[in-house]
Amino acid sequence: MPAASTEPVASTEPTASTEPTVPASEPPAHEPVSLEPSLEERLREFVTRPLDAELQQELAQLLHVRVEGASVLEPPARECLQLALHALLADKPNLRLVRGLRKRLESQLADQLHPLRLSAILRTDSPSLQVMLGLTGALLLSMLLVLGSELLRLHGGGFKLFGHLELHLMVSVVLAGILGSTTSILVRIRDFEQADPSEPTSRVMVGFSKPLVGAAFALFGLLLFRSQVLPIIQPPAVGTLEESCFFLAVSFVLGFSERLAQDLISQVEERLEPEGKDIHGPPAPDVSTGSGESSKG
Fold first, then answer.
1. 288, HSE (Cβ side, Cα atoms, 13 Å)
2. Is 292 left (phi over 0), alpha (psi -120 to 50) or beta?
3. How far apart are CA 1 and CA 100, in angstroms?
4. Helix (H, G, I), strand (E, B) or coil at 160
5. Position 250 in a domain
6. Higher pLDDT, 123 or 16
7. Same domain, yes or no: 170 and 141
8. Containing domain of residue 147, as a range?
9. Under 8 Å CB-to-CB from 250, ≥6 apart: which residues?
């Protein structure tokens, strides 16, 4: 008989792994705003005392700001937080100062955490957003214009300016000019980021006034081409679809390009001024004497 094999039989059962189990990493907790060591020690001692309800409320809100604003508050705001804590931990707490500083910190914290809030947008330092604020005001004004024109159309019938210019055409032209100017602002919105950051009011006024200027230029274009004072292009027949499209397109271009509108105004000036006389030149010298007689050499 053949001899039995003495080789060990490999076990098919799975062996337990001897490698240590690595615990799952926990998300890092919010680290509060670091305080001065002396202030930190005073704070720990202060919370062990019996406090009235008003002090407890202010302290709880300041500690909440300290935790939530750890990653977003700027150094000046951190100093403001420490100043508020110093005022609160004093022997005679200055609650009015603490409350004012705390509200300012909460406002800054809310602006940082929720930058799309209306109050955050109104206080923004971004030049682009400041221009957009003014632009929004102009667009709201244009909506009121549309609403007013519709009410006038419903109650006044077919109103015509000077008996010839239709109200709906004038309103459409004005809106096209506003749209052209708005498009021009949006195309160049990045250019405003290079402007002087110390003039926020001027940027808001730019965003508000440019659509109004575009509307004025568009209305000027309508009057110019209807009057044929400057026969550059012959408009289509009155009352046709082509005429409406023509004036809407021209109004958009005049609102978009202020340079083109200014060139048209310059050409009208040259056409209306007397020949051989420069209306923009210096005035003629006064050669009369005090008695009304001409001076003689």
1. 5
2. left
3. 103
4. strand
5. yes
6. 123
7. yes
8. 127-272
9. 218, 221, 222, 225
Q: What are phi and psi of 71, to 5 degrees?
A: -100, -5
In the block, tokens 């002087």 appear at: 196
Q: Which two tokens stand for residue 115?
A: 């930058």
Residue 140 pLDDT exceeds 70: yes
Q: Do you know the residue count of the chain?
A: 297
Q: Is there a domain that residue 20 lies in? A: no
Q: Bridge partners of 160?
A: 166
8-state DSSP, 194: G
Token code pair at residue 280: 């923009």
Residue type, 16: A
Q: How far apart are CA 275 and CA 70, in angstroms?
A: 74
Whether residues 131 and 116 fall in one domain: no
Instruction: Report d(CA 113, CA 109) in Å as an integer.
Output: 6
Q: At residue 289, what is the residue type?
A: T
First-last CA distance in the chain: 157
What value does the mean pLDDT of the chain take?
Answer: 76
* Token couple for 243: 């005429």
CA dist list (Å): 230 to 9, 221, 227, 272: 108, 10, 8, 10
At residue 190, the 3 state secondary structure works out as helix
Distance CA 91, CA 111 (A): 33
- Per DSSP, what are the bridge partners of residue 294? 288
What residue spans of the chain are helical by DSSP H?
37-46, 53-68, 75-89, 95-113, 118-122, 127-156, 167-187, 200-227, 241-256, 258-272
Query: Is the pLDDT reported for residue 175 higher than 50?
Result: yes
More confident residue, 233 or 11: 233
Residues 33-37: what's their mean pLDDT? 78
The answer, yes or no, to whether residue 290 has pLDDT greater than 50, is: no
Q: Which of 72, 89, 121 delimits the end of a domain? A: 121
Q: For residue range 51-98, what is the model confidence (pLDDT) as tens digits?
A: 888 888 888 888 888 888 777 778 888 888 888 888 888 888 888 988
Give the contacts of 149 (CB within 8 A, at least 6 positions apart).
167, 168, 171
